[in-house]
Amino acid sequence: MHRTATKSVAQTFLGMTFGIALAGAAFADPVDDKLVIETDNGPLELVTTAPAAAHLEGALTTLYSGWHYREDDTRDMERDDFDNPGMVFVDMGIDSWNKAQGVNGESCAGCHEGPESMAGLRAVTPRVDEKTGKLMTVENYVNGCVTERMGLEAWGMTSDKMKDMLALISMQSRGMPVNVATDGAAAPFYAQGKEIYYTRYGQLEMSCASCHEDNQGLFIRADHLSQGQINGFPTYRLKDAGILSAQQRFVGCVRDTRAETFKPNSDEFKALELYVASRGNGLSVEGVSVRH
Ligand code: HEC
Ligand code: HEC
Q: What is the mean pLDDT of residues 18-40?
């Protein structure tokens, strides 16, 4: 009962905001399709739908990558690295990786060798660092080296430099299953992120769940509402003609509810990133996806 009532309130708000009828006609299932990517090393099949992990019981049963909700031409762009506009940024990440840019000429490559040394990291982050007990995103690790090991000013969390590097590092985990820890040292961050996910913010009093759990499948204007997964992040967004990090996407979504948003790299958004990532446990990391 309660759940139904809540849902209809959310749908009323959605309807008021976006001026569409939400009952019946505006719903469509995620597209039934397979993602096999042509890469330099041959075809690579990604897992874009998977059974939900146990911790999602009552919330989700089947997980779908956001890829399933996009138009044919957008999905096609991700099927071939040659057509994926995000690969340009991965290439810039490689240049930056190899460049002597530290105060004493240090480069990432000088200490880490090839970028493939980062394989697996994107699949398990955000994670609590064993040595420091801090919650770490890929960006936090990068800035740790930039400041402490290269003597530079921290890179802006959503700067081009950071996102090129994020794209490069994420690519090294492409095809690996997202496997973010939710228990142990991660438990308090998971709980905090989950609470934020279900909190209604802003004039519209909507939570992430109002759209991405209760109303996935609906169309908001031309937008087919997905589960709001971040296995595809960073993503190349056609609308922005650039790379977007997960937390940048969160900013946009919170703004749409007419709420004050948290900042990228705030404790709140880091915890939210961990929680949202864990909702995709079992889906493949897409490296750099393409969205509209
Ligand atoms: C002076 C050597 C040095 C340089 C230069 C350096 N790093 Fe590191 N980096 C390290 C060390 C040491 C660690 C910690 C490894 C560990 O704890 O196992 C690390 C850890 C990391 C991690 C976390 C990896 C993991 O699996 O936990 C990332 C990501 C990273 N570095 C990225 C970079 C990037 C990007 C650059 C260039 C902008 C860079 N590093 C430059 C030495 C360096
Ligand atoms: C008013 C409805 C609404 C709310 C509330 C909302 N979003 Fe979204 N979100 C959208 C729409 C529309 C899109 C674009 C279509 C899609 O991928 O679902 C989107 C896209 C996303 C994506 C990109 C998915 C992909 O694969 O490209 C993520 C991640 C996301 N949202 C996370 C969140 C989080 C986290 C929250 C809560 C802080 C949130 N959203 C709140 C409407 C919403």
A: 78
